[in-house]
Structure formats: structure tokens, C-alpha cells
From TrEMBL, chain A:
Gene3D superfamilies: MetI-like. PANTHER family: ABC TRANSPORTER PERMEASE PROTEIN, INNER MEMBRANE ABC TRANSPORTER PERMEASE PROTEIN YCJO. One of its GO terms (biological process) is transmembrane transport. The keyword Transmembrane helix applies. Belongs to the binding-protein-dependent transport system permease family. Keywords: Cell membrane, Membrane, Transmembrane, Transmembrane helix, Transport. This is Carbohydrate ABC transporter membrane protein 1 (CUT1 family). It comes from Nonomuraea fuscirosea. It is found in: Cell membrane.
TrEMBL record, chain B:
One of its GO terms (cellular component) is ATP-binding cassette (ABC) transporter complex, substrate-binding subunit-containing. GO terms for molecular function: maltose binding. The keyword DNA-binding does not apply. It comes from Nonomuraea fuscirosea. This is Multiple sugar transport system substrate-binding protein. Keywords: Signal, Sugar transport, Transport. Residues 1-19 form the signal peptide.
Amino acid sequence: MAAPALADERVAAGPGGRARRGPGRRRDHLVGALLVAPALVYFLVFLLYPALSALYYSFTDWNLRSDANWVGLANYADLLFDDVKYPHFWTSVRVTLQYTLIAVPLTLVAALAQALLLNAIRRGANLFRLLLFLPVVTAEAAVGAIWRWLYDPQYGLINTLLGLVGIPGQNWLNTPELVIPALAFIAAWQCGISMIIYLAGLKGIPGTIQEAAVIDGAGPWQRFWRVTFPMLRPTTFYLLVTGVIAALQVFGLVYVIFSGNGRSVTGGPEQSGLTYVLHLYLFAFRYDAMGAACAMSFILLVFIVIVTALQFRFVRQEAS
Amino acid sequence: MGRGLVRGAVVATLATALAACGGSGGGGGGQGDAKQLTFWMYQDRTPQAGQVIEKVRQDFEQANPGVTVKIVKIPKDDYNTKLGSAVAGKSTPDAGILDQPLVSKYALDGTIKEVPAGLIDEADYYKGALDTNRAGGKLYGLPQDQTTVALFYNKKLVPAPPKTWDDLKRISAQVHAADANVAGMNVPKGDGYGAWMFPGVVHGAGGEMVDDAGKKVLFDQQPAVEALQLWVDLQQSSPRKITDSDKPFENGLAAMTISGPWDVPTIREQFPDLDFGVAPLPYKSEPAGNIGGEDSVVFSASPNADLAWKWLAFLAGAEHNGAVADAFGGFPVHLKARVVAGGPEQAAFLDQLKVAHARPAVPQWIQVNDEIIAPAIESALTGKATAQQALSDAAGRTRSLLGWNG
């Protein structure tokens, strides 16, 4: 049995293939390995090793200073069921889910609308693209300061604008019910990266298809729903999946909005802005419970994996 | 899917990754003959404060030839995070500033050294400030400055500051009645900062938050309930729609607020037109307030511990502590140190310091403050519970968390 197989291989490699290609191949392997080495080292040292240590610490009572003692599954059980030790764990879960459900669709709609407008205009597209992208590259601290002013209950521009159309001003960042929508709106304002990806998606739709639709008598509305939107499905799917993952990890925004100026970070009025990762951060660095914080991060990891798998299973992703 | 996994892994390692990169700038050590000492402190509040510290550093180096002191300045909001990461990464500096409530924690697990016998004469220091460095009866650090909060009042709206709670409520109501767009008092909220201020008010009614020696929670008793009720009552003349605005006191929208000496120069500089005064906190039965400030410690891993203690004692000594404490935004802790002459508001803070109480020496106090007391205060302030209900519930949770019976 072995002989024919060997013969086949030699045939496949071509006459004298082995002798000639062998060393060359090995050199290729070496070059390949060298090329991926930096990324691989980075992955092993800065991602895999910390991730595995975090997994280990999630089974301990480590407080960053003393030696870690093994506590088994106690951190996980306490997080899920002990209301005395972690009174705000489930609050943080609810807050994060609410934020994700509002922020992700809002961001996608804002990004698509901006991309369609940019795609449509002929002059000044570069300028507008720059302006719309600016919020992404603005320092998080500046974003926090700007939006605190915009949402100010006394001088805020948003209340002034609402007043023009007769809507009474709100105390946005200090009313528990309004905190999450207000934060999601900021996230949608920062949709520049999604907008750029949508724009690339739009440029990838062949002009001939749009022309054919025009010839067939389709109006702009029909062209959007029947041609553009279905053609963008892979883009939308990608942005949905990455957007959900990012939203479940929201941290910087709430941190800068609710901290600074003497306020300590306890997550806004009645913990209404206490997102999952902010809660995790507080236990890791403020309440001396790094072990529990590591357990929280693994619960989040499992949740993200499940949510992502469900999206791959149930959301349509092919263009049509 | 692969991408999702990787990104999930990134957040999963957030905590550890932060820990891994926090160590930069630490790890001072002696090399050869020339010794280098690394000292961590908060970012300078003002350029002038930076000059004061630089001058003291040069004086110390002159007095100790061959020694260089490397000062690493870290924004206050990030300080505890960075320090915690440095401890975890075993790259602590030789010495550093340490937040008062962290001293007992760090002492109990051996992260910091005990003050060597004979370094200072304890009788030279304010007892309250020195006591914030004790754990298990031993001294683990030197205080560098002490501070407290007091009542700031807008002189245009409040001609004479209130002395008692009744005065406070009356004046607040008068201000709001005179102009519905102005709040009487910037009432603290149910967040970490409000919960930090709350004990000072409780002491003003003759109460205590806890009895840490006897392991008893006391903030569900009458004085604390009355203190919380005071804040609830004050909100009638101080709607949140006004006080939640940016800097309501500075902008003249709230007639009174509670803050510390660190705010005085900032307000004078940014709001030169605001005519304000500072008075001790109003009280019910006895004058009282909170104590705060900076302690300084030597880390166990330091190879230059003796030199590090010498540096800390130099900062806290009679000769320099006046200027150093002023640079840190507080008042001297050494009895013989000269208080840097300040504005007319200084007397109020010094009066307040005489009756200031230290925070409970409970290692988990920050967590109790943030996760239990703050939400309780908020639920009373928003009317979701009475002051008594909110505090009884919080006291029960605190007992369960700490494993106390009383």
C-alpha cells in the first residue's frame, strides 16, 4: 500500500521535485515563520499569557498585593448569586444590555445615513468625511467634557434646541432613565469607523446594477431597499458583530462622563451608567478584588462568544 | 468567529494587561555609589506647587551628597490604579504618597514598612493626621498634609453663613424663594463623593458611622438618619435641575456648597468675580467635619528604605512641611511647621480641622462607601425610600458584607 502512495506523491511533486524544492521550501517556511513571529510573540506575550493568567486568577482571591489563594468556583458563584458581596452585578448586566440594544442599531443607522450622503455628493466629500470622522479621533476626555456641556440641564445646547420645538429640557445625565439613551447617542455620534466601512461597501456595488435598476424604473427608495441595502449585507453583518462586541465592553465613555471634577466613579445616578466593564474595573482596582474581576471578565468572554455564535447562526450575512 | 474570540480575549485580559503595563517608571534602586530614590506623588495642582516640591528636592540632595531623588508625578485619578499595578508587578517605587484608607490595607499584607523607631517624635505631629497612618496599633507612614471640607457661601446671596442646620435650611429656603432660578445649597448626591462627605454631617449630630473597635454599624441610628433627612429637606429649596449644572456654585446658581481648600485658588482664578466666603460646616449639636489629606509610606521592596524614610521625614519636618503641605493643597501636619499664609478663608478650615474625624479604619470601607452607602443616600434623596429605610437597609447590607453582628 505504501509504495503506490509514495509514487503518487513523487508524481505530484513533478520530476525531481523533492530534490530541487526541498531546501527552497524549508527556506520559505523559515521566512514565513520570521514574518509571523512578531505577531505571534505579541499574541503569546500580551494576549494569550495574560488571558491564561486571568483565567487562573479568576479561581483565586487575589487582591493585587498578597499571594493568591485558590477558592475554586467561589468567585463565579458569588458573582451570580451573592447579592451581599456584589449588589450591583446584575444591574451592570442590565445596563450593558440596554446600552448595546440602543447604541448598536443607532450607530449602524447613523453610519449608513452618513455614508449614503457622502456617496451622493460630488463636491467637498473629502471635507465632510473628515468632519464626520473627527469624533473618532477626538480624545475620550475631551468627548466627555464636550457632551457634559451639551447635556447640561441649565446651559446645554441640546435642551436649547429641544426648547425651540417646544420640548421641555431634561436633566439628561442625572435622570436614571435617560442616561443610557444619552450615552448611546454619543456612541452614534462617534460612528465614523462604521461610516468609512459602509462607504467602502457602497463603492463596491457595481454601477451597472444601479443603472439596470434605474432603467427598470426603480425609484430611489426602491433602489435603496431592493439593491443597495441587500448588497451591503456582508458589511452590515460585520459591523453588527463587531459593534455588539464593542458595546458589551463599553468603558471609556462612561468613565469620562461620570468621573473627574471630584466625582468618584460609581456609575452615574442610581448606578444607571454602571456598565459591566466599569463594574469590573472598580472591583479590580478600587475594591481590591482582582480575582473576582478576572471571573467577571471570563463570564463576559463566554457571553460574547455565545452572542457572536448566535449572530452567525441566525443573521443573514450574504449579499443578494 | 475568530475575530470575536480574539476581541473577547482582549477584554478578558483587560485587567491583567493593565497590570502589566502599569509598572513603568517604578523600580528605583541604588546603582554603584550614587543612590537614586524614586518617589511617587500626585500631579502638581499648580505650577507654583511644582516649584516648591522641586526646591525641597534640591535641598534634600544638597544635604545628602550622592543622592538623587527621582519624583514621578501621576494624575490623582489614576494614582491608586497605577500603584496597585506596580505592587502586583513588583515594581513599586522606594516611597510614595498613599491614600489614607489604603494605609491599613497595605500595612496588613506587608506591602509597606513600619516606621523605624526614632525616626520622628510623635509628639511633634497633629494626632488626627498621624493616626491615619496606624494599623494594628503600629505606625506605617508619615502624614504630609491634612485637609478638610467646609461650607463655601456666595456673599451676595448669603450675607452671614449659617451656623446650625436650622440656619442652613432657613437661608437655603430664603435664597430659593427670592429667585426660583437659584438653588439654596448644592446638596451632595448619592455617589462616592457624597458618601465620603456624609460622615462629617453625621458627626455634626453627635453620631458615628461605625464603631470599628466594637465592630458595630451605627449609621442606621438617629444622628445619621437626621443627617440624611437634612439633605432631603434641603433639596426642596435646591432642585437638582439647577445644581446638576456644571459648576453651579461658581456660576452663581447655587448659594452654598461644600468643598475643600484645594478649590479656593481654582475658583479665585477661574471665577474672579465670584464674591465668596468659607465657614465651618453647620451642625446640629456639635461642630464636626471630615479629615483628609496625604500620607506617605516606604514600600517593603525598597532597597533604600533608610534613605527613603529620611526623605519622607525631610518633607514632613518642621522646616519644610509648611510649604510641602501647602503644595499638596492642605495644611501642615507638624505642629511647629509654619502655615503658609492664605486668604481670609483659611481660618475656617483650620477651625474645622480641630473638630475633624478620621474615616472608619475598616479595610473594605471604600467598597461600603461606594456600593452601599452611596446608593442608600441616593434612594432617600430621590424619594424612593425614607432616610430611615434607606440607612437601615444599608446597615444590614454592611453587617452582612463585613460579617459584623452589631
